[in-house]
Design brief:
The protein has one domain: Trefoil (Acidic Fibroblast Growth Factor, subunit A) (Trefoil). The protein is globular, with a radius of gyration of 14 Å. Helix content is 0%, strand content 41%. It is mostly beta strands and 153 residues long. InterPro entries: Inhibitor_I66.
Length: 153
């Protein structure tokens, strides 16, 4: 299994960059992380190996966490010192080079993306954190919305 070393990376789902949107309120509340439209400014992530998992920090150094919102969990960047989620990053060799699934080290819920249909992200484009029902096959087959390209910046 391919493992990532600590460093800066770009994260994409299909051809769409994953990041915070450049327009946000100025509060210290957690900030949503989205699948942005193709051509949006791509910003590098800091991926830090911590024990058997990773801490993923969005541009600006804000670590990320799964936070409940409207009955589901979504990915947010934390600005106020809250405890980040520890993530597992697993290579999906059957899908291709530099392709991974990202899931919570605690409960195994996956990052799941939805392709943007508008210039500005909407709640539908926020990265959702959820369980996947997978067929019992080896190697596992993941839906495309749960597979992310992670490449050095």
């Amino acid at each position: 299994m391919d493992t990532l070393s600590s460093g800066t990376y770009f994260i994409r789902n299909l051809r769409f960059p994953v990041s915070r949107f450049h327009i946000e309120d100025k509060s210290l509340n957690p900030k949503a992380v989205y699948t942005l439209p193709e051509g949006a400014e791509e910003q590098p992530w800091n991926i830090e190996r911590v024990g058997d998992g990773y801490i993923l920090s969005n541009p600006g150094g804000a670590p990320t966490a799964a936070i409940p919102h409207k009955g589901q969990e979504y990915l947010f960047a934390l600005l106020n010192g809250e405890r980040p989620t520890k993530w597992k990053i697993e290579s999906v060799i059957s899908a291709g080079f530099s392709l991974y699934v990202i899931k919570s080290a605690d409960d195994g819920k996956f990052w799941v993306s939805s392709a943007p249909e508008h210039k500005n992200p909407t709640e539908e484009n926020q990265i959702e954190i959820k369980r996947l029902i997978l067929q019992p096959v080896e190697p596992p087959r993941y839906p495309p919305e749960a597979v992310f390209e992670i490449v050095r910046s």
